[in-house]
Hints:
The structure holds two protein chains of two kinds. Chain A is of the alpha/beta class. Helix content of chain A is 32%, strand content 18%. In chain A, strand 6 and strand 7 (106-109) form a beta hairpin. The longest helix of chain A is centred in the N-terminal third of the chain and has 19 residues, at 112-130. Chain B is mostly helical. In chain B, a hairpin with a 6-residue loop joins strand 6 (119-121) and strand 7 (128-130). The two termini of chain B are 42 Å apart. Classes of the chains: A alpha/beta, B mainly alpha.
Amino acid sequence: MSLISKIKRAAGIDTAREKYAYGKDARFGKVAASRVADQWVKTTCGYCSVGCGMLIGVKDGKAVAARGNPEHPVNLGKLCPKGLSEHHILASPERATQPMLRKNGELVPVSWDEALDTMVERIGAIQAKYGFPSLGVVGTGQLLTEEYYTLGKLVQLGFRTPNNDGNTTLCMASAVSGYKLSFGSDGPPGSYEDLALADVVLLVGSNIADNHPILCHRLERGPERTLIVVDPRVTKTAMMADIHLAIKPRGDIALLNGIAYILIRDGLIDREYIARHTSGFEEFSRFVAEFTPERVAQVTGLRIDRIEQVAQLYGRAKAGFIGWTMGVNHSTQGAVTVAAINNLALITGNIGRLGAAPFSLTGQCNAMGTRESGFTSALPGYRKYENAQHREELAAIWNVDVNTIPTERGMAYPDIIEGAVAGKIKALWFVATNPVVSFPNYALLEQALKSVEFMVVQDGFHPTPTSDFADLVLPAAMWGEKEGTYTNSERRISKVNRIVAPPGEARPDFDIFLNIAERLGVREMLYPGWTTTHDAYKEWQRVSAGRMCDYSPYTWEQIEAAGGIQWGGDRLYADGIYPTEDGRAILHCVPCDPFVEQPNHEYNFILNTGRTVEHWHTRTKTARVEMLNGMVPNAWLEMNPVDAERLKLRSHDHVTVISRRGKVADLELRITSIVAPGQVFMPFHFAETNSNRVTLGAFDPISREPNFKQCAVKVQKTVAH
Amino acid sequence: MALPLHERAVDGQSPALVRLTENGLVFDRVAVKTSLIPHRELAEGEQYRFHFDMTKCIGCRSCEVACNEQNGNPADILWRRIGELEGGSYPETQRHYLSMGCNHCLDADCLRGCPVDAYTKDPLTGIVVHSADACIGCSYCVWNCPYSVPQFNAERGVVGKCDMCKGRLEDGLEPACVNACPESAIEIEIVNMAEWRQNFAAADSPGLPSANQTISTTRITLPERTGAELERVDAGQIQPEHAHLPLVYMTSLMQGVSGALWVLLSWHGLDAVRLAILLGITSAALTLSTLHLGRPAYAWRALKMWRRSWLSREVLLFTLFAGALASATLVTAAVELNRAVPSGLVKSLDWSAAVLGLAGTLASAAIYLVRARPAWNTVHTPIDFVLTAALLGSLLAVLLEEGSRLLPVPSAFRIAPDAFYRPSYGAWLVAIATAAWLVNQGVRALRLKDSGVVESRATFSLLAGQSFRPHLIGAIALALVSVLCAAAGHASFAMACGFASVLLARYLFFVSVVPLNMALTFVRNRPQGVHA
């Protein structure tokens, strides 16, 4: 600023009038001139899995505004605060803009050639020494389906390590496993539309008002629907409910089995559906007989009449919808809890028809696309490693030797981390994920990251808490800078478009994968003639053709024009035929076990973790949006007034949460009746107060998903530094 | 207009609005409002208002972000804000949200106080509109609004606030917050102003100051389940207000000068030198006061609304005071140089200045008698200002009596008779004024402590709290030392200590006031308009 303008500003002659002027946007009317766009680009939101259609305003090559796409069937023009400010992340000064290689202990800028040569060389040397599986790769539900598909082939067939997984294992692996247990395949059977169509909606461990706010408008309050929310915490969603079941932590299996017991006892079941489309009913019926309302009341802490009421409501529903999120998934019993939910839907025939579905609400924008196209827990296209025919199908499409396709799943994410500690994994490659904040039991993770010989972090931002540990940082383009598809929770494939160019030297992940393949000498074999993600899409269409998640009928253009298309149509299993051996869904007997780390005299609180609407995951993005970060700049700990009084703590005191594994200091205490006595809650978004320093490294034996939701802690006043 | 949900409901083919009925699946059109803004012209006596439906709000905060994007505001300025309310005990806990922009009140205090007429209540729509061009950034509206709606934008040097997206409404478009809300919890309605004035009970809500102060027009639909009292969750976190240092100095200096004028007048101790010194202090104080403004270059505009605004009146009275003082100085000098001057002119100018000074001090105090700042809005404020005038005035008068003789000025100007002054008079006056001043402060503090008003009690806790205890103790100690110095005849030490004590007390006056506000969130991202 020149001296004259400084004086004019100080004297108030200049009031930054131009900066604050209003203009008229051709499409959206009067608005701050700084938000008037030359052009609006259609795309899909890059935060959660609701999959809202957006229009991003572009002016002079910069993203200046974000709007909900009024024509998009998912969000009808609405967006949550993260979506409304999403354009701000693109120009963040903290974006990663050049490759960085650790030399003499310091990360220094290098050329892409040097970065990728080094990566291939170092990983090659490690694999030559310790074997192919010594490389572990952790991808993400933030990538495009096309990219994730490309990455799977690169890791499994190029680097030839089976130890490939996604951060989705921290998030919805239990839903995948639970669907597979009951139905023989992954694939959420319902649609968002069912939320609006159902007359009874049961949400289990799902705080959609904070985490999927744009779904809430489908739950208009009124006499035509009963919304039941099962959650130990009085969440914003619980406040939307007609009935809130304030259940004891992990009481959900007992509740679900108890509802099944009442439904069977009172004949509120669909015997015809059970007979024609399920197996295992007799055994199931005998098993749940133990879950009498009295016993369930004891385990769940709920009143018997409430349990009876909810069972009657669901049993008598014309269309009963059960949705769940992380309250179910984030558990050592997550997969089987999903099966217990599916049981209810199956015995009442509440599946495959309007308004009726057992429905997993997923986390990341493309968790679904990556679980369909990924080469991680399954082969691409919901194929199974152990199925020879599936392997042969893929080998034929890919024109590779069938023996190069693994016959069993490699290590899951937590096993890769434990493998690094155990010395089995010697090189790690993290793509667009931030385990230092998101992975449970930080102490073990830190040991893993320090144990490996070479660690690559590929991310849109640098530094991140994880890139601090990296030997090589690859700057990646992110949402808004590349083209492809995301698939949302309701199986809706949506088009994602490039709005602006990536900053500096950052490259789309897809280009990075191809560059690496080239150096490995596998580019032509794996990606013959490919130059863009569209080439990957075309192959993915062939790979998914005829599978449940069949993308082959839909071109990118059709997807974009329709505002997204649901593979499998509105609902799966309308015919009652399931992809199991006998075509019947399986009713599982799900035992109810207490959660792993129970509170005791010393660690006398149960710590619950979760999210808040203003932030996304580990805040690599939302911390860069001033508005969002200003709304919630720090973490807090919720504690019931009864406990606070006992501990002589006051609101806004700084407290420390201590578990057997570590501690988190300087949490702002919120004394509130949102949480039950004996329980405390903290959000997990904050690297500065990382909940995973205290969380438990216990994993679901089936899905390998961590038990983020319950661990035993004590709380003390933080001692001033 | 971007109302997809409603268009779909009306156009009818949308499966998203299908409902189940007793007859099974029927494409049953739900009765939804066709729009969230009115579709007829306003009639005589009507205005637009917000309707907020607390039963629909899920606290997602899209409205806040949409508002900032709409208006291009920085992150620390929120024209629409979300507040959290909580009540009951687990598991019967109630939690709800408020989402508030400007309430476009019938009796808008922001408008009434504005010294430059930057606010208008739009005659057509009833929207309370603020003009950034007219505004001089005095922030008086910020003090006046019981909802803390107007916010000072330091980058611009002016205040800004919600205008209900007037320009969009005129184009038939929804305001940004209305358009962004995924739950249709915010809408624009038409209200008949006379009827609303008769019964505005629906403007009240937990977490909001009583609507009867300004007759807020926002209608709020509250949840039916009212088993538990809903309370704001931000109450545990009281932040000090802005110190307004130019005002700390200006008010103290002006009170000191007007007090000194009275004291010297009563001692017959006014000569040209002393008057010139008082004039110098006055000029410095008034110049300094413009630094409080976001736009000092337009300070003169503050005179405009003297018929309505106490701030204008203060500026006017102090300007006239300065004029009278200047004239008195000149005329006194002329007399001392034996120029012919009409008889009685000196006396009448002296007395005019003294009266204007007192009037200015009282007008100054009246500025702080705003209902939106309960700790200021007591009789102790004018008493404090007058006693400060007495305290600093006597200290300054003594200093001038003792000290102005030592100044190197021509002897012609030192003819003031000191017939009515004795050093002991000065010391006694200082002691009495200080005692009265301290007693007033003490009584004020005790009354704040026992007040029925939450904000007043919060002011007491701030004053008694750790962060301001040193200031408080310092102010008292310095006042006492000042009295001792005055008694011992050290006029300049007495002046220094007394002035420092008053500055500290005045600083506390500004920072410890707790304004009325709407309930905010627990992690209270309170917009911090940085202000000079």
